[in-house]
Amino acid sequence: MTQTAPASGLFGRAMRGSVITAGAYAFTQALRLGSNLVLTRLLVPEAFGLMALVSVVLVGLSMFSDMGVGPAISQHPLGDEPRFLNTAWTLNVLRGLMLWLLTCILALPAAHLYNAPDLALLLPAAGLTLLISGFDPTRIDTANRHLLLGRVTALDLISQVIGMAAIVLFAWAMRSVWALVLGAIVGTVAKLVLTSLFLPGERNRFAWEPQIGRDLIHFGKWIFLSTACGFLLSQGDKAILGAHLSLEQLGLYNIGFFLASFPVMLGASVTSRILIPLYRDHHPSTGAQNAARLRRMRYALSLGIIAMLAVIALLGLPLVRLLYDDRYLGAGAVVVAVALVQMPQVVGMTYDQAALAAGESRPYFLLMALRAAMQTAAFMIGASVGDLKGALLGQAIALYAVYPGVILLARRYGVQDATHDAICFALILAVTLFVLWADLPLLLSL
Predict the structure, then answer these.
(1) What is the total count of domains within the chain?
(2) Which domain holds residue 357?
(3) pTM beyond 0.70, yes or no
(4) In 3D, which of 89, 207, 66 has the Cα closest to residue 139?
(5) Is residue 35 a part of any domain in this protein?
(6) Is residue 252 helix, strand or coil?
(7) Domain-located, residue 206
(8) Residue 446 in domain
(9) Cα separation, 374 vs 402, whole angstroms
């Protein structure tokens, strides 16, 4: 793909950006895995269960208040203007302050809901990460707008290395779940400092232009609702299972999910960064060359992710046995099941950003709402009937059932590739049947 794209053109930058993003994400996950292996020897499974609940609340607050400032900067005609960027930055700072205050308000109710008293103090402390990240410079979004991802990615990696090193050091010294919270704060501060010092561009300052503010809010109202649905998609499983599983079981699920979700998260990281600029300036309907390039990118991404999920599904239990001690062996079945369950969502992964590239966030929200409603309902019903096994089976059924909605959006914006979809579903069916034949007793042990 890189050979067919002009070196200095947007498509060439997109291809290099996808390689940089994928490489950085792979490095980050390897780093997280390494620190996770160390932490499982310093902390008990209940600590990971507690941190999963903290993450549910923090991610929930963040997603339920996301105004889509990053996508707005990527697609708005004034996205390079200082007055636009400063208004957007001011909005982000106010949002960060609001989110931290909400973590303080919700701390005691959450501790009571999950019967986990430690949440009363952990949540306000962890919520400081939301306050700090609100000050991140919009130079990050400007680099994403122009697909100049090298330096942004490098600084992000450095900050993550700092944060994970801090977590390990705190865990060694404290042997407490507080190590995870304090290390996260250190990493968030590191990202703010590094991006403020080493990314080019003007320094942000507080400003507010009413018309720009209205544009941001108009575009962001549907993003806000979409990310609220995104919370249910990304964190609803932990929120629901927190009421059905013990902290130890939830910790095992969290570890298994972390191992199995790498390919899909990698794909989401790549598509969220490169597809809006590509669909905006190189839509497949504008020429055969653009259509061919996007088709090759789609096949490479989808088939690569399905292949990775297949390997993880086949090697889930041996992988957990190799990496963790006996206390964590229960995560093996989770790895296999989650890898199989996530396969259907890969098929339409490259479609939904077309709506945002066209500046239409409402259709994107409607698709996210459909996904969230079907997946959450199926997960809750499954969990009430069959605990973890039932929940994961319900999630798989929902992911297949939502595909017609994905196709309606893809056809509306002229980006569907029916041949690609048929090939992907055939591969998914073959992998699923083989894994069920090989590992059905393991999956039934969930």
Answers:
(1) 1
(2) 2-440
(3) no
(4) 89
(5) yes
(6) helix
(7) yes
(8) no
(9) 7
Cα–Cα distance for residue pair 35/393, rounded to 1 Å: 31
pLDDT by residue, tens only, the chain of 446 residues: 444 444 445 556 656 656 666 677 677 777 777 777 788 788 777 777 777 778 777 776 766 556 667 767 766 677 678 888 898 889 889 988 988 998 899 889 888 887 888 889 988 998 899 899 889 998 888 777 766 667 888 888 899 899 989 989 998 988 888 888 899 899 999 999 999 998 887 888 998 888 887 877 776 666 666 666 766 677 777 778 877 777 777 778 888 888 888 888 888 877 877 777 778 777 777 778 878 888 888 898 899 999 999 999 998 888 888 888 777 788 888 999 999 999 999 998 888 888 877 777 788 888 888 888 888 888 888 888 878 888 888 889 998 999 999 999 889 888 888 999 999 999 999 999 999 998 888 777 77
Quote the distance between the C-alpha of residue 172 and its chain's center: 28
In Å, how far are 72, 207, 221, 377 from 224, measured between CA atoms? 12, 22, 5, 21
Check if the beta carbon of residue 416 is closer than 8 Å to that of residue 302: no
Kindly state the DSSP code that residue 358 receives in the 8-state scheme.
T
d(CA 147, CA 141): 10
For residue 25, what are its two tokens? 């994400």
Residue 445 falls inside a structural domain: no
DSSP state of 203: P
Torsion of CA 163, 167, 168, 170, to 10 degrees: 130
